[in-house]
Batch of 3 targets.
Target 1
Amino acid sequence: MEAEAVIFADQVSLNSLVQNLVYASGTVGAIFVVVGLLLIDAGMVRRQNLFSTTIEKVVGFFIGFATYFVIGFAIWAAQYYIMEDFTMGDSIADWWLGGGLVNAYAQDIDPAVFPGLNNFQIFVFFLACFAGIINVLLHYAVSERMKASAYYITCVVATIVSSYLSFLTWGSVGPLTNPGFHDFFGVGFVYIFPAAMGVVFAYKLGARPGYFSPHPRVSGYYPPSIGLAAAGVMTIFAGIPMVILSCLFFFDPEALAVSVTMAEASVGVAFNNYGLSWAGGAVSGAIIAYSTRKYTYLLLGPLAGYVAGASGFDVWMPWQTFVVALGAPVVSYVVYEFTYKRLIDEHKLIPLFLGAGVYGLIMVGIFKAGTPRSGYLGFEEGAFAFQHAEISLVMQLVGIGVVIGLGVVTAAILTFILERTTGLRVDEDMQIDGLDARFWDIKTDVKTLAEIEEKAAGMTEAGPRGA
């Protein structure tokens, strides 16, 4: 006679369902972020490349998403296994795509073996979305000039390396987070890492024809829809509040929120910090834009404020976030102008993430130094005791150095290999004609300068119709 199945009710209680919904909302917010990023790009690239750049980002997102399911989450989760005297190998055995805990129903697993299994399973989806977002952001640095095959290979590698970086820098008991490196929103591995890779790729790929100066066949780069890009910015603004909830842990009493860094936090303060980061960046960015008559800062400003504040949404007070956010567009402005004058064709990731992102992490280290964090709730002594470490400027600088260093090294190795195998750069003629027409045979209603001149020359030779 078959034994009756045991149901572990604590794993599927009403309280656990509420937490499941909170974390599931973060995945919805992450998808809104992807939509916003696609809209920004659609409003800024040449029409001749609109389909290609969009679809490459979508495919790159799902390559990162799938790779994260295969191995990425198992790497990140290893910090909690090590905390319990297990190994990264144990984490991989449980959490790779074919692992026992990925492929189990929560009600079938004894809480003594793994409590809160549903939440961890939902976290795979949530963090997989951000693995995909890293690849979407990376594409901004190589858009319209990197071969699709090279980009897709890069997506796999970037996902694995960023997963290891998240193990190091995002959480509370990783090798860098446990001693005190503080990054509430994953600015390091989500934003700064692809920006560091982007520096190397932008240097190796060179500028797009006609970007900095007129080209015989490309008169210039003219954004097709700034309004569409602005809508993308606001879509991101709408999506991230749901993500913030997923960066908080909730313990008894049931409304007690503790940051993923194990710093004291609350939902209301974190949300207000988020809103004011955008507002501060928008105000400062608008001042720069109207002073210089460069519309770019109207879009960069709110994003810069958000990126600068994100690493400390859990520990800043709202007024502090607003002040920090006011300074972020200034930092981005300095970095943007520096790269533009040196003809570096990458003006999104570098000023926003290497500029505002690094600035924000440093501000946390300066003004929130001494804030208790690290370890894990319930551990009262030992290497992982709850809030045993403090935020420090030294650990912030160490974390920044590790993230940028891994980004640069990863991209340098990839460019060396890709240039000698698949090739790295789309040839100039294809860049000029547009990837949509040359690769996909998609015609747009926009003609290049060369096509207009060719048509004009043909009419001159043939004479007016009817002559």
Target 2
Amino acid sequence: MKNNRHLLTLIAVTILSMGLTMVSSFILAHMLSVDDRGAHQLFITTVSYVVTIATGGSGFALALSMRNKQYWHWRRYFVSFLAAAIIVALIAIALFDFTDFKFLFVLNVILTAILTITLEKSKIDPRLKIYRTLTLQQPVLLVAIYGGGYLLFGEQPLEQAIQLLTLFSFIQGAACLFYLYKIEKEFKRKQQNITEIDRTFFFKTWFKQNLYQIFGATTSSIDKFLIVAWIGHYYLGLYTVCIAFDALLTKFINMLTDYYYSGLLNNYNRIKSVLTIIAMMGIGAVIFTPLLAEPIIKLFFSAKYIEVAPILIWFILNSIIAGLSWLLSQNMLIQGKQVLLFTRQLVSIAVFISLFYLLKDQHLYGVACAFIGASLTRLVISIIYYFKYPVTNSKVEQK
């Protein structure tokens, strides 16, 4: 009963978080022009991608070290990865002309890196208490900051929207530093015989996970980069509507995946309950999306985004397929087989780029078809991996 309560609480928090995230998307759609909305999305995507390259997997390695009661001097690793994030951000600015807001870009990279490490590290708690807090805190802050800015100033230029994003990142980063302190205090209270982090274990774990996360981020970001390069900022602006709806399913499935992964960390198998929820959610989404897409887009995003409505169902289908692929990959992660997952990601990226290039004249329809082809590729490989490399030391969680 207690374990069910934790799951139900996490589901409730995630649903509320998804709703608030949608509200922030509505606000941005009204606050910015379609072109500026595309540029804003490119800024956020590039920040996230740089953070993944520099720090992805570091929080994961810290969590696994904690599982082995290795914790001393973790701050050294934390500060080192923040320094790496600054270096990668500066290199990105020097090599690519993607934003005029260079200082704000570097600052957002630092603050987002703190958030990412905290999220990964917080999964050591089987109750996911801090993880749930962060899941809800992010959209609450976004709605408060963007909503306040829109109510006070109405439509705004891109620069002001980036400044509001930076304010959000600063508040979130400060909160994460407090949460890291709480994680440390709780861990030291519960554990005895804590030792220093094994450098070989840490960096080997980080390197494998970092490679996997980079290619995972490439899979989730390359669409934005290619849309800007091949069909322009305007279509990326339209595509943000697809992202907003796709995120409703993706965020929920990612939450369930984190719940499943947290169970694996604690030797529990939660796959049946997770798959049941995903199946129910997917059936509902497929039934209602074609019926409600056009009136909802017109009502909440405005008529300037209405051309996206007929395409939306294809992005919903893709998010379900991609989510299942990610869920079935967790067994490989827990066993440290990131190299095989890296190969899977590489193949799917090649499929996506090839299909998008061939169908780029179809604009967003081409993007949707390319996505579905790549996600199906990953799902087939993930199913093979799931049965070939099962986690054998887990048990069904007691109700």
Target 3
Amino acid sequence: MNEKRRTLLKTMGGSTALAALAGCISTGGDGGDGSDSGNGSDGGDGSDGGGGNSGSARLWADLTDAEDEDMDAYISDFEEESGYIINKEAPGGELDQQLETAIPAGDGPDSWIWAHDWVGRFAVREDPPFLYDASDDVDVSLDSYTETAQQAAQFDGGLYGLPFASETAALYYNADMVEEPPETLEEMVSVMEEHHDPENGQYGLSFPGVDPYQASGFIQAYGGDLFDEENLEVTVDSDACKRGMDALETLYEYMPADPGYESQIVAFSDGLAPFAINGPWELGNLQSEVDNLGVTTLPTVDGNNPRSYSGVQLFYFSSMLADADQSTVDAATGLAEWYTTNPEIIRSNAESQGYIPVLGEVVESGDVADEVQAFAQQVEHGVPMPSHPDMDSVWTPVTDALERVFNGDQESDAALDQAASEIREAL
């Protein structure tokens, strides 16, 4: 899941402190295929490109349709300016699963796009390695990015990618159905009550709420953490997290019966729900579907701002670069450098996709749309996704627990207790 140093200024000597948002594209998206994008798929040497460079690199990207269209255009611009060829492909399945198969077989991409939470997980892999430390290959200063974005790209002193955006889940609303965006959970419930009529295909909320990333804000609203990265402790069964589950269960009452991502997002995009909770990766798609779209922070719970997980999107550097020609290394790192430090691209992404900028000069300008400001404000309320390898053992047990609660198969306290037990056994 992951995508020249002469002037690089390293900022971290140890493990990352994890970055502030940015997911899945996370952790979301319907995945445009991009396989026939025309971005040099013939593997030509690029000798007739504007930059006169030769070399090609393979990029895997699992993006929404709107993101995919923009990425194709940017890659075409990069190829024309640099002379490099970028072969962009969709992974053909879940990105992490495809990487787990392709890299050991020597058929992985040179770079991939995903949130920072896989950095620690893949940086510790040795047989075979999954990431490439590009500290000696990257030509940009990490000081170009926000501090949390710098941290997100590093682990134990290695530089494993370059950051271009931050993200988290926030509250979308249809302003034709919602007079004023709710500031509290109680206000939100009042509006949802007016619209929720499942027998007639109307719902109060569109929310993939069994996804721990999406649900994290409410579970952690009272100060609890799904995983305490600082102390490396499993804390999803804490009293604070169990209190947060009460708020989450309230939201569950107003969702369509199928908690799957596609089933949830379509209810809002089709005008069948006044609210959706989702990330900025859906902004472009929803703007084309909802005429009067608004975005605001998640409603407070007993005066507490939901502490949603945030992620930093990276161009990861794959271990495939370790044995690649220098021209391939230059193509892969060159794209990441060009894209992540181009203020025009960063501003355009903020406007069209809701990407929260992490390029310092754009962040300091404050020149972003209201929707992006809303996501950025929610990031301030949230917490960075842990990137420690132990976090990899957290996602599935918590997902299973949330599904049991959503389906009414288990009480929430018992579900979190079971999840914590399963995680501890796995560590």
